[in-house]
Amino acid sequence: MGKKSRVKTQKSGGGGATATVSTKEIMNLITELLQKCSNPSTAPGKEWEEYVQIRGLIEKIRKKQKGLSVIFDGNREQHFDELLQWAADCGASTEGFEITYFPEEGYGLKATKDIKAEELFLWIPRKMLMTVESAKNSILGPVYSQDRILQAMGNITLAFHLLCERLNPDSFWLPYIKTLPAEYHTPLYFEEEEVRYLQSTQAIHDVFSQYKNTARQYAYFYKLIQTHPNASKLPLKESFTFDDYRWAVSSVMTRQNQIPTEDGSRVTLALIPLWDMCNHTNGLITTGYNLEDDRCECVALQDYKAGDQIYIFYGTRSNAEFVIHNGFFFNNNSHDRVKIKLGVSKSDRLYAMKAEVLARAGIPTSSVFALHCSEPPISAQLLAFLRVFSMTEDELKGHLVREHVIDKIFTLGNSDFPVSWDNEIKLWTFLETRAALLLKTYKTTTEDDKSLLEKPELSYHSKMAIQLRTAEKEILEKAVQSAAMKREHFTELQDENAPLPKYEESNIAMLENTITDSKIPLVLRNLNSDDEGDHELKLTEVLDDGIVGGLGIMNGESTFPNHTDPKSQENGKQEDNTKENGDAKETTADRIECSES
């Protein structure tokens, strides 16, 4: 087993002597950091300034904590054999594949024999998993039982569980922990100049939020560990650095997954060793949880020949989500999209009527939608919103008080049944204009970015940021083109006095839509977007944001994503829990699906 080494002092700036870091000095900086991060909202236009100020405080803290973080002897590759032996001893499958380094994607699983599509090739028993339940039964238990933040946020509980077990030389999970990356490629590890490449992107606010909330979490829990009576026995009491917490947060953020509890009554968060070595590709979710055998099971996504890399599908994540929460950019992402914030102004003369129609359709008056890389670029929910947004007073009345109002509400998101030709022209004109305005907020063109990407001196993080920026602009450019074509098409139909398509009363079959994610009645769908309306955040919400990134609980495997670079920094991945396209797949009829994000 690799020997763990830990340094508790750092070199002073003078003649090479060592000096103990002042707890009071660190605590003063922690207090300042907590105060700086306590305001959940930031004045418009001041986000970058605040981010730089928070970074400055963090760097001061990191400088004083230099040399205090835990490290393992050797590199993670030297511990893979130990991981496989531990997994075999625990009853996991370890035959038919091996852990291999791939130049483009980092470490992953390589088939050592032919594997057929849908063949069960990997299973991991519950006892190998690090879960919220195992955390509660560990040395962390006494603190967990009395801290409402840990009780409310399983992901942070997992992060501290991971940190405590890493410091325990006799930990059951040490063979797994020693194979985790020493660093990640999430924006928490970006240099300031690398983050600058994300300025003006739709993703930058999530990057700011992630960093701010992670800093706030660290400051809060640093104080907790120093002052909580039950924290005196924690190994973190002696040294709890920001780098340690950033590592634990990133490990959980890139790897956590939802599994059912032992009785199947609810779900809990877990880290799943070995399974998290698979890299991502497009496809379907092929992992489930077998309650009868009490283990996670994964079937092959496709046929694999001996020597092929074994991939899994992380889920329908955008590249912004991959970059922010997984630390990689995935080329040819068929689920890529860009956020677009839209809302009906309360000063709109028809606000009350529009709000009522939207409410009947199950859509908020203000929300974050998405423009997709595919055609059409908008979902049924966004189409419905834009139709209501563009309605005249008479059209609104037709959806509230006249005949067949239920049918009209049901077909709001159906592209086959326009409200009117004029309404279609208005909504596509609005979308074309809005996307074009968003494009103007970028400081570089797509051509500029492509030229930058050719520079060999670009860091991996800088390249990833520019790739994301380019992808966002390409999606917006396609949206402008698509909206313009739609506007012209409906203008021609209006000029020709073409009759509007008719539908039969209560004909649910007519609800089938050509627009992505709209195969069931609109009002029955769960709108997968965040309300952009102002609201006061609770403490648990504020602290939690840094890990979940505003996406809700993420359940992902810990594979090292595609297109990561050197061996020193492989990244994780996650299978999506949103299941926007019904792509969850159970491997047996009685198996409970493993929520993957």
The rounded Rg comes to 26 Å
Strand order of the largest sheet: 5-6-14-11
Count of extended strands: 17
N→C terminal distance = 32 Å
Helix-strand layout with pairing:
Layout: E1 4-6, E2 10-11, E3 18-19, H1 23-37, H2 47-64, E4 70-72, H3 80-89, E5 97-102, E6 106-111, E7 120-125, E8 130-131, H4 132-136, H5 141-146, H6 148-152, H7 154-166, H8 174-177, H9 192-196, H10 204-227, H11 242-253, E9 257-260, E10 267-271, E11 279-280, E12 287-290, E13 295-299, E14 309-312, H12 319-325, E15 337-343, H13 351-360, E16 366-372, H14 380-389, H15 393-398, H16 405-410, H17 421-440, H18 446-453, H19 460-495, H20 539-548, E17 592-593
Parallel strand pairs: 11-14
Antiparallel strand pairs: 1-4, 2-3, 5-6, 6-14, 7-13, 8-10, 9-10, 12-13, 12-17, 15-16
Helix pairs in contact: 1-2, 1-10, 2-10, 7-11, 10-20, 14-17, 17-19, 18-19
Q: Your description of this structure?
A:
- This protein is of the alpha+beta class.
- It contains 20 helices and 17 strands.
- Strands 5-6-14-11 form a 4-stranded mixed beta sheet, with no helix packed on it.
- Helix 1 packs across helix 10 (204-227).
- The radius of gyration is 26 Å and the shape is globular.
- Residues 1-19 and 506-597 have low confidence and may be disordered.
In short:
With 597 residues, the chain is α+β, with helices and mostly antiparallel strands. 39% of the residues lie in helices and 12% in strands.
Which tags fit this structure?
four-stranded mixed β-sheet; alpha+beta; 597 residues; four-stranded antiparallel β-sheet
